[in-house]
Specification:
It is built from one helix and 18 strands. It has 215 residues and is an all-beta fold. The chain has two domains: 109 residues, Histone H3 K4-specific methyltransferase SET7/9 N-terminal domain (Single Sheet), CATH 2.20.110; 85 residues, Single Sheet (Histone H3 K4-specific methyltransferase SET7/9 N-terminal domain), CATH 2.20.110. Strand 17 and strand 18 form a beta hairpin.
């Protein structure tokens, strides 16, 4: 979802094609000017050698808007991208792509703060859901993959490995009632070798399958 929405930035290059004086108000060569293409939108800002360069605002007909830095006709530097869906990104851009550090906020209130690579959440980051759940850790291509901590709003917590959004590998899950499991996980359940420490003092150590103790 994130990657597809961001592709609208590549339309920015349309404004560098076939510049006509009648479409410009001001100086669209070397200065400050407003350039309009009826079927795309409007760029208002600074120009250098007939390219968007410096600070500007790119407003699309569909309601999407970019406000920030440009370099040689590309969104490059610091900027804010607001989508017509209500989603918003604030942070680093490189060659019309989300690249570097940034914050992406969805219209429903969910928020990601962290690293972006080639328009995807890749690197270290924090994803907070509107219901109060939070994930802190590694992302690869918008997926929770690597090492991370998942904290539920009810106080439960998991620290360990993630593979494509799932708790898979080695980890520790602690429940708000004091129970704790340390060991193997597969697709979000205790599966493999592990030890459950119950708040009552009971300990079960051995082989687990689909959250059930086997032996």
């Amino acid at each position: 979802m994130l990657k597809n929405n961001i592709l609208i930035l590549f339309l920015a290059s349309v404004f560098s094609i076939n510049l006509f004086a009648q479409n410009c108000t001001g100086n669209c060569e070397n200065g400050t000017g407003i350039y309009t293409l009826d079927y795309v939108g409007t760029y208002e800002g600074t120009w250098k050698n007939s390219l968007k360069h410096g600070e500007g605002t790119l407003s699309f007909k569909n309601g999407n808007k970019y406000v920030g830095d440009f370099l040689n006709d590309s969104a490059h530097g610091k900027g804010t991208l607001t989508l017509n869906s209500g989603d918003k990104y604030v942070g680093d851009f490189r060659n019309d792509s989300l690249e570097g550090k940034g914050t992406f906020t969805w219209s429903n209130g969910d928020k990601y703060v962290g690293d972006f690579t080639n328009n995807t959440r890749t690197g270290k980051g924090t994803l907070t859901w509107i219901n109060g759940d939070k994930y802190i850790g590694d992302f690869v291509h918008n997926k929770r993959t690597g090492k991370g901590t998942l904290i539920w709003s009810n106080g439960d917590k998991y620290i360990g490995d993630f593979v494509t959004e799932n708790r898979t590998g080695k980890g520790t899950k602690t429940w708000s009632n004091g129970d704790k499991y340390v060991g193997d996980f597969v697709n979000n359940v205790s599966h493999g070798q592990g030890t459950m420490y119950y708040a009552s003092g009971v300990v079960k150590s051995g082989r687990w399958k689909n959250d059930k103790f086997i032996d």
